[in-house]
Structures are given as structure tokens and as C-alpha cells.
Amino acid sequence: MPEPTAIDFLIVGAGFAGLVAAERLSRAGFRCVVVDRRGHIAGNAYDAIDDAGVLVHPYGPHYFRTNSPRIVDYLSQFTGWHPVDYRVKSFTRGRYWSFPINLATFEQLIGREATSAEFEAWLAEHREPVETPANSEEVIVSQVGRELYELFFEGYTIKQWNRHPRDLDASVCGRLPIRTDRDDRYLKESFQALPAEGYTRMFERMIAASPGLEVELGTDFREAGGRWQWRHLVFTGPIDEYYGRRFGALPYRTLRFEHESFTADELAARRGISGKDGHWQPEMQVNYPDPEVPFTRIVEIKHATGQDIDASTIVREYPKDWTPDDEPYYPVPAPDAAAAYARYAELAATEENVSFIGRLGTYRYYNMDQVTAMALKEAEKLTARYASEL
Ligand code: FAD
Ligand code: UDP
């Protein structure tokens, strides 16, 4: 076995967390190596052209959004943007509903046109106020009452998490906006856009801009660990895995993705449903809250990417509990899971030369912009700490 090669940083994971940290640290003059056990960069944000020629998000739809101009400025060094107003529908009681809840949803519920004032009065009558919502049931029922909660949230949440909304943090269902005007955009943030040529291309440019950065794909940390001798390790994989699950596995939810592609002729035959040629369904995402339907949502990402292609691909998402053969897509945002994570976080806090960042490294239900912010902050801290050793 040859001697390990000395480097400044070994970075485990080539997703948002790992590559943003790697870019910053390389540009600061450190020698960095990134390893990822998957055969591609970009982590769960990876996008690629499928067999039908459609640009897809194989690990579920990734809608970039942020309120932070700093994050947009940072990423804009590596990509242009394709602005998107992400739009979603919910399918229940045999029909498509305007979603997230807004005035049009209310009009569908009562079967006639209405005003915002009428909807507000209806909500005032139906909501069950609580001062500080403690869980995902309370956060929705306190805003819209039980009927709309049961229609759109209860069944979907139980399928997605295999837990009752009562047993999940308020922030889970509280992510979704509820509006009394006609704004039906799915997200709340001020900046909503996709990287113009996709996430993978954005990260290729980020790597190209990182002097001397080496990226090893198809490489697990356990294997790479013997070949590199690092000053500091940045770990963006699951924190419980790093510690050999010594306090037990943390709970994760995972997804099975079922892809289906359609030709132009097949899509034309669905025009009455999709409302336009070249598409299978009316919006980029349709949520299915009904318990009888085994999947949670169908995504047709072409609506969002705006790709000019006759074919289209849809992806159905089937949630399930994580096993060691699965990708751990979602940390579970709930008090018991947070308590289990706290034991690992305590160990992590004693590490001198290891940083844990990212959605899995810190066991947080974080979006891409939040992970970017975390990686920028950690890179700044590490640069200051090791600057004198350059
Ligand atoms: P990841 O992207 O998971 O990267 C971690 C990488 O580490 C992986 O590639 C993994 O292979 C690698 N790794 C782990 N362990 C090891 C090891 N031992 N050795 C080598 N490599 C290892 N965010 C949004 O902002 N908008 C969205 O619309 C959105 N939609 C989502 C939909 C789904 C279905 C999912 C699952 C997530 C979604 N997210 C979304 C969240 C987004 O994916 C994350 O915020 C972001 O990708 C996290 O980046 P990361 O680098 O922390 O983790
Ligand atoms: N949710 C729901 N009904 C919906 C959409 C979302 O009950 O139609 C709840 C569900 O618990 C979900 C959470 O709101 O996990 C956040 O939804 P989002 O679409 O942001 O989830 P993600 O894209 O992260 O899977």
C-alpha cells in the first residue's frame, strides 16, 4: 500500500454542501479532494437527460428558491437562471384543485366565485387558533380549519412521513404558503429560478473554477480514507453512518421513483387532461393526498425547465422507511428524531478536525439555498483557522 498523499481537506460528498465548500477552500489556496460514492456530481440535485431525451431530476424535483441575494450572487458565478413560477395542483375527490390553498381553492370548495374578504371571514369561522403551533397538524388547522387540513394535508403527510402530522414539527407543513388572494405559486421565497443549463452543469463550472480541485466519483469515504492524509475532514454524508450507527440508526424517509416517458402522439391524446400539447399533466407537479393512492406526487419537470422537446417524462414518488440499501433522502423533522440526532451532534462537537455540514451531516430538512449558506459559512471559518498554515 503506497503512503497516503497529504492534502489540506478531504471533502466527502459532491452535492451542494461538499462542492460549495470545496470551491471556496480551493480558491483560498488549499489542496482539496472531493469524493462521492455515486457515479456523478451534484448529489440529490443531479439532473440529466433520460432515454427519451428529457432533462429530468432523477432524485425528485429540485426547485431552487431563496430570499438571500448573497446566495444568488454566489451561485451566479457558475450559472445563468431560468425564472420559474413553480406551480402545483392537488388531486383529490376526483378533480384537480388549485394549491397551495388560495382564493381559487376556496371557490372550488364552495362552488362559486368569492372575494378575499369572504374567504377571510370563512377562515376566521373555521380556524382553531393556537398561540404557538407545536406540530404540523396545529400549524394548518390553526390557519384554515379541519376541512381543508383533512382534504389536503393529513393523508399526504401520513404517506410521506409514515407519521401523523401531530408527530411532526410545525415547520414541515408550515413550509407551504396559505393565501387569501389568487397567488397560487407553490413557494414563498422572493427568488425562484432553475440554473439555466441545469444543476449538473452549474457544478461542472464550479469545479472548473476551483484551482487544483480533484473529484473522485464512485468512491466511498471508507476506501478513500486510506489513500489521503488530510489536515481536516468535511463530511456531508449521514452523521450516524460516520459514527457506525453506535447509538442506533437515525430515522430517514426514502423514496422509490417510477419514471415513465411519453411520445408526442401519446401526449396529444391527453390534451384534454393536460390542457396543452406536449405535456402529460396540467402543471409541473400534482400532489395526491388520498390514502388509497400509493404515491404522493407526480412530477413532470418539463413544465419547469421549459425544455423544447416533443416527448415528456413523468416521475411518481412512492415514500417508504429507509433501510441500509436506500438513499436517506429525508431526515425526519420531529422531536424524537432530533433527540436521537443530539447524541451524534454531541460527539461531533468534540471533533477537532472534522466538520459536519449539509442536510445529512447535520440531519436537517434543509433546502439547497440553506445548505449553500451553511457551506459558505463553514468554508469561511476553516479558511480563517488554517490560513496561517498555507
Ligand atoms: P446531498 O445532495 O445528499 O449530497 C451528499 C452526497 O454525499 C451524496 O451525493 C452522497 O452520495 C455522498 N455521500 C454520502 N456518504 C458518503 C460516503 N460515505 N462516501 C462517499 N460519498 C458519500 N431543495 C430545494 O431547495 N428545493 C427543492 O425543491 C428540493 N426538493 C427536494 C426533493 C427531494 C425528493 C429531496 C430528497 C430533496 C430535495 N431538496 C430540495 C433538498 C436538496 O436535495 C438538499 O438541500 C441538497 O441537495 C443537500 O445537499 P447536500 O450536499 O447536503 O446533500
Ligand atoms: N404537504 C401536504 N400536502 C401537500 C403538500 C405538502 O400535506 O399537498 C406537507 C407534507 O407533510 C410535506 C410538507 O408539507 O412533507 C412539505 O411539502 P413540500 O412539497 O415542501 O415537500 P418536499 O418537496 O420537501 O418533499
Automatic annotation (TrEMBL):
Residues 152-365 form the UDP-galactopyranose mutase C-terminal domain. SUPFAM superfamilies: FAD-linked reductases, C-terminal domain, Nucleotide-binding domain. Transmembrane segments: none annotated. PANTHER family: UDP-GALACTOPYRANOSE MUTASE. This is UDP-galactopyranose mutase.
